[in-house]
Amino acid sequence: MVDLATAREQLRSHHLSHLFIQVLGWSAPRAFTDRITSLGQCCVPIAERDRSSGVQTAWQVVLPEKTRFTPTLRAQLYAAICTHETLTAEVVNTSADAADDTAGEAAKNSPLLIIVAAQKTQSLWCSSAFESALYVVSQPMALWDYRLQRLAAGGGLFPTVEPEPQGCDRFEQLLTQLSEGVNGIEDIVHKRTYAALTLRRLMLIQQIQQKGWLAGDTWYLQSRFSAFIQRGERVFFKSCLQPLYQSLSLPEIERPIALQTTIGKVPFLGSLFDTHWLEAAYADISIEDTALEEGLGWLSEQASADGFNPWMGGALAYWLARSVGGTGARKVSSRAVGDRILDALIQQRLEQTLSSSLQKSSSQVELLADNSKAQTLNDRLFNADARLCRRLIQEILPALRVLDPACGSGDLLVAFHQRLTEIFSILTGYIQQTQDAQLKIWRSGLVDMPEDLSLIHI
User: Fold this and answer.
1) Closest to 112 measured CA to CA, from 39, 19, 33
2) Which of 220, 311, 436, 448 is placed for a possible disulfide with 209 were both Cys, Cβ 3.0 to 4.6 Å?
3) pTM to 2 decimals?
4) Within this chain, do residues 275 and 361 fall inside the same structural domain, yes or no?
5) Residue 82 and residue 344: Cα distance in Å, rounded?
6) Under a CB-based contact definition with an 8 Å cutoff, are residues 55 and 182 in contact?
7) Which residue range(s) make up the domain with 94?
């Protein structure tokens, strides 16, 4: 377990060597004197760790007072480190647009470059030549808590795309067992469809019970199933699950008193728990207790390993995609795709507003557009000032709209939500550091960001 209080303090102070070695469990670099001087910057190895396919090193660059950060500087520093580590061109040139597993494998042990501002008020953590995460002192720490936990647990800055192969096999077996345990439906396809629906419902219930939103019991389903079996009763589905579904599908004011007495106080979720067309077509659906027991055991395993937390991994979206009939063999993470799409949209609107407000000549606008091709949104935010924060908060972000009519499991929409949460978190950090009156007014009207952002509605 990571001592998050200490980790936060070390990150806030940018005592990164201590953070990695003393808190996150990395090792001291084998050669502390092995520095790289490139473009007038001093790149220092601060920690390393052994991974299954090699050694990964964390490097730190503290920018001198008068050095302005640019995308070109970032790219050249990263290339210099990769060259020093004699990494292959495949690793150096791995981009966020890579659409196959080879690129992902090549990037596993690519260096982690941390570029720290001279004032140590922000730092850019580069996991490849193109992918980065920005930390700003005073920003809400929930997202960075998850990153620090991943780095301590052997992961990277960003969640993995999908579970291990054995996890996929287990999921398929579980889906088959549930399907075979469905009674009251004769059609095999309909049985499997209802089994998949049951899994989706149980996954959402597992998430909300972990919040304590089901009678304050973080193991609500498992506790009731255990008590049910101990009493020698049968057909948990009809006795407990169906009434729970009904309660979750109705606003509290519309729930029958008998239902409220049986189930207790639960949130109104609707949609997923409304009467499904299969439930309308087959009046006597039931699921065998043995099949449900397997399902509840799997849920417990996932919960214990934080498998349903989209901030820690991509498993939730993966399981959902499998349950709606997808192959699950995604070559690119939805997070990476979502970040690129959203960042490109925000960058485009920034260029439009900048070119309009500054009344640049056509040649200046063209030059600005050319430079922006290499500049990521994180690059721009690294140099953010009050003017840029105001433009994002007052003009661009409030006007953003995302429509995904064929959303499938919704993992791309979740990725958009995560990126927007991160952007607002970064801006909040900058606002804490500025005395700009307009930004202070905006900040004062916010409800503080929750420390736990793990629940994403399915």
Assistant:
1) 19
2) 220
3) 0.80
4) no
5) 27
6) no
7) 4-152
